[in-house]
Amino acid sequence: MAAPLRAQDKLTFLLALVPFLIDRSRVSVADAARHFSTTPEHIRQAVTVIAMSGVPGSTNAYLHNDLFDIDWDSFEQHDEIVIVHQVAIDDSPRFSSREAAALIAGLQYLSGLPENIDRDSIASLMAKLARGASSTPSAVAIAGGDVDSTLATIRDAVSGSHSLEFDYVNARGESERRVVDPLRVESADRDWYLRAWCHRREAVRTFRLDRMSEVLVSDVPVADHPDVTLPDTLFQNSADDLTVTLDVASSALPLLADYRARIEDAGAEVTRVSVRVAHVHSLKRLVAGLPGVVRVIDPLEARAAVAEWAEAGAALYEGDDQVSG
């Protein structure tokens, strides 16, 4: 039999019991006793104390709405605890259903990463977010992809100090086999990148994981590169980069910080900037991330490439409309 609570522990126990009961909505006395390693009788006594607790109103007197309240029928007839009125806690800000759904989606993504071993804690947090939202969040699911397995393989190579081999499609759409010594794995927004010493280029290069395939960890240990210093920024300019002129909504200018945009003509509504990209096709990603707030001005090949890409995307939607109609 569990030992009775000591007097000095009663307040701590009550402070733990209240959120436990609120978090579960409905819980039996027996389950609560097992959770706190105490007796059912102690739980019943504590519930009676909770029902007499609250926060005094403006008159410094306790009125009905100033006290916790429980479902006495469930408590007395079925030995179940249901708090039907909470004091002060009801007034605390809550996530909206959309906010909770977004956070749950982010946690689902994190739970799929190899380094997050304690997935039970993440699952528990997602459940608490769902219960604590102002209304039921929309059901969301983040599907795992090839990047997850690629990320795990690359991290094995980094921790084991072995070289990597993989097929890589560059920004120009060209595919070639690369052999690299992995140095660091980093993420930017939703994408993962590998910084590595490329044996073909004999220099440090950055590779996007979703452009890698047939990734293999070789038996060859990584070479020593004492003179290699990784820059603080993920992307570096190259002599082969293309300079592109853009008109950007002035309010959205901070979103181009990663591109090191150079202001050509600042305006109240629209700012003309120049950015350097690895290839004209890199603009597709930039434009897709800033819909309606960026316009490609120059060079003409960049305008044509983005226009062709946008028209191809629009044509797919038009096809869907015709089928559904």
From TrEMBL:
Residues 242-312 form the WCX domain. GO terms for cellular component: proteasome complex. The keyword Membrane does not apply. Residues 9-130 form the PafC HTH domain. Keywords: Proteasome. Transmembrane segments: none annotated. Residues 150-215 form the WYL domain. The keyword rRNA-binding does not apply. It comes from the Bacteria. PANTHER family: PROTEIN PAFC, PTHR34580. This is Proteasome accessory factor C.
